[in-house]
Design goal:
Layout lengths: L20 H8 L7 H4 L7 E2 L5 E5 L4 H6 L6 H13 L6 E5 L6 E4 L2 E4 L4 H18 L3 E5 L1 H8 L5 H4 L4 E3 L14 E6 L2 H6 L3 H18 L1
Parallel strand pairs: 2-3, 2-6, 6-8
Antiparallel strand pairs: 1-3, 4-5, 7-8
Helix pairs in contact: 4-9
The structure holds iron/sulfur cluster (SF4).
The site of iron/sulfur cluster has 16 residues, from helix 2 and helix 5.
Amino acid sequence: MPRTDAPVGAQEWVPPHPQSIDELKAAAAGCEGCELYADATQTVFGRGAPDARIVFVGEQPGDQEDQHGLPFVGPAGRLLREAVDAAGLDPADIYITNSVKHFRFELRGKRRIHQTPGPAHIVACRPWLVAEFSLLKPELVVALGATAAKALFGPSFRVTRSRGELMAWPASAQHPEDFPVAEIRALATIHPSAVLRADDRDAAYNGLVEDLRVAAAAV
Ligand code: SF4
């Protein structure tokens, strides 16, 4: 039965001494750390090279990601891949994941409408992100959109104000003690789905590419 009380969090599902991302991914498949697992199809864990130098962090899987079990395979993912290429980043250097690893949605008829994950979901799912970072030890963390940026840098962080600026990480993390990684850097930009929703799509896309160029120059 799905839980209806406050989320217990993912920690009890995280292996104590994980040796690989694949081990984490297998364990996350059974996570019931919050109620989102109950209605979603499956856990959508991060993917990318285990020696990736850059970790992109998005919000949560969307409808297509939920069905395929892979992050960023829908329209926003396609756009992000284009932007990565345009910015001169090597896709082999990138591992991509989400702050929340199950799709949160509302049913309207037969359609599943995206719902932004709440602070409790982000907190509940955080142990997976911490575990991914601990294994990957990236040189640069890129937060995609407001949810990821708040999850990483704290609730007062504003992407609109600070996008495209390199910051010290983990010093800029909301709970730096959670992230046992050497000194690296971080940067926030908009989520690629914001480009798809923008009135001026070209300007929004160019802004995303510009921010990613900062990332490309930093590694
Ligand atoms: S969203 Fe995260 S914490 Fe919640 S059940 Fe899924 S993997 Fe576990």
